[in-house]
Write a structure and sequence with these properties.
By secondary structure, the protein is an alpha+beta fold. Helix content is 31%, strand content 27%. It is globular. Bound molecules: adenosine-5'-triphosphate. Residues 155, 187, 189, 198-199, 202, 204, 271-274, 313-315, 317-318 line the site of adenosine-5'-triphosphate.
Length: 448
């Protein structure tokens, strides 16, 4: 069973490299521990995931606005937020092989010398756990000194708290309202692993939703369910998702409730996103430390109050990995097996591939014309005239392209193409002028 699980992850890693989703970063120099580069299809996949998150969380709502704050902030920010003192993981060393592991995730780690064993069960003796700060340090300006120390942000959320007043006043918002941002975060993880699931440089999608304290519980329930349905609406199988409420002992000292939205990865259940009640902890701390009161003035009660905060915080890379793993199927057909990614059409990196049936009789020219028209209409397209048509279909199935459009003799005579749908493999004759509308309609009605 364990072997099967490992090999499924290997299949995903190898497909990612072969088809250009994800590459090992600095590969020609032997790679750098758990940093990855996204290739042409990976970058499109990530862009779709970010667009889908942004549309649903920001553009389609009146009560959430966006922000793009700096990665480098004043070093006081991270002292006040508690990250300098407390953003640590417990680390243990193996006295035999000198490997370093996260003490609270030992069951996920493997002994580098005996990969079938968990560290500590391989006869190596582990040290007592000690705290390891996960923040990357750097220096601002030409002189390296204690006063020039700065940190690469370990989360995007603090940039939102710092801009609470700027955004509220400039966008004329009032609680309940949210500020969302997507951006890079950096953590010097002790044991990175499982491909892009745990990296040292990754992208987060976070939203701080500021509410009157009395509405805290209602909004917590709302965001927990809204964030879970976002995944299933975009095709993730519901049986692979679960919401796990944190036990009291797991909660941060300022949090009244927190849950993890978890996915069942090939390596087991893992956190995909967290939804946390952060109370007024961050606004209060930054108000006290900066001397700027980060409060809302309620014109009705004529009182200032600190809103409470509900925070859905997800990782774009984990989302992209989840869409990839969840979409993958080796489907047994009558004569062979096809590899197919059942992406939601709005998540698929390529929406339409256009093929001439054969490379003659004006078909390539017509196919290029149609491809260019669809591209101008806003679709991400791909043109392919190499190999037999069946092989071209298979190549697109393997990267999850929902529609393949084939130009044949009838196209030239009657202006009709054959549109082949990825999941059902059904083909339909569609007038060229209706192809774009046909795809938009199919996107809207898509079901896993
Ligand atoms: P974990 O317990 O897995 O270390 P966390 O609880 O520290 O995660 P949060 O601080 O809640 O994570 O960050 C919010 C989200 O950011 C996570 O749910 C995850 O999707 C993403 N994330 C966090 N750390 C990483 C990482 N090292 N690599 C990729 N994504 C990450």
């Amino acid at each position: 069973m364990a072997k099967q699980k490992t090999s499924f992850m290997d299949t995903i890693v190898s497909l990612s490299k072969r088809r250009g989703f994800v590459f090992q970063a600095s590969e020609i120099y032997g790679g750098l521990g758990n940093t990855y580069d996204y290739g042409p299809l990976g970058v499109e996949l990530k862009r779709r995931v970010k667009d889908a998150w942004w549309r649903r969380t920001v553009s389609q709502r009146l009560d959430v606005v966006g922000l793009d704050s700096a990665i480098l902030q004043h070093p006081r920010v991270w002292e006040v937020s508690g990250h300098v003192g407390g953003f640590t993981d417990p680390m243990v060393d193996c006295k035999t092989c000198k490997g370093r592991f996260r003490a609270d995730k030992l069951e996920d780690a493997r002994c580098p010398e005996k990969p079938s064993k968990v560290p500590g069960q391989c006869h190596g003796e582990l040290t007592e756990p000690r705290s390891f700060n996960l923040m990357f340090k750097t220096n601002v300006g030409p002189v390296e000194s204690a006063s020039s120390v700065a940190y690469l942000r370990p989360e995007t959320a603090q940039g939102i708290f710092l801009n609470f007043l700027n955004v509220m006043n400039s966008a004329r918002m009032k609680p309940p309202f949210g500020i969302a941002q997507i951006g890079k975060s950096f953590r010097n993880e002790i044991t990175p692993g499982n491909f892009v699931f745990r990296m040292r440089e990754f992208e987060q999608a976070e939203m701080e939703f500021f509410v009157p304290p009395a509405e805290n519980d209602t909004w917590y329930d709302y965001w927990r369910s809204e964030r879970s349905s976002w995944y299933t609406d975009f095709g993730i199988r519901p049986e692979k998702l679960r919401v796990r409420e944190h036990e009291g002992s797991e909660l941060a000292h300022y949090s009244t409730a927190t849950c993890d939205i978890e996915y069942e990865y090939p390596f087991g259940w893992g956190e995909l996103e967290g939804v946390a009640c952060r109370t007024d902890f961050d606004l209060k701390r930054h108000s006290e430390a900066s001397g700027t009161e980060l409060a809302y003035f309620d014109p009705q009660t004529k009182e200032h109050y600190m809103p409470y905060v509900i925070e859905p915080a997800g990782g774009i890379d984990r989302m992209a990995l989840t869409f990839l793993v969840d979409a993958y199927e080796e489907e047994e057909l009558e004569k062979d097996t096809r590899v197919v990614l059942h992406f939601h059409p709005e998540i698929a990196p390529i929406t339409a591939a256009v093929f001439p049936l054969v490379k003659k009789d004006g078909m390539p020219e017509k196919a290029r014309e149609i491809e260019a028209e669809l591209r101008r209409a806003g679709f991400t397209t791909f043109y392919d005239e190499k190999a037999a048509i069946g092989r071209r279909y298979r190549r697109q199935d393997e990267v999850g392209t929902p529609y393949c459009i084939t130009v044949d003799g009838d196209t030239l005579a009657e202006d009709v193409v054959t549109v082949r749908e990825r999941d059902s493999m059904q083909q339909e004759r569609v007038p060229v002028s209706e192809a774009a509308a046909w795809m938009r309609n199919a996107n809207e009605n898509w079901k896993r």
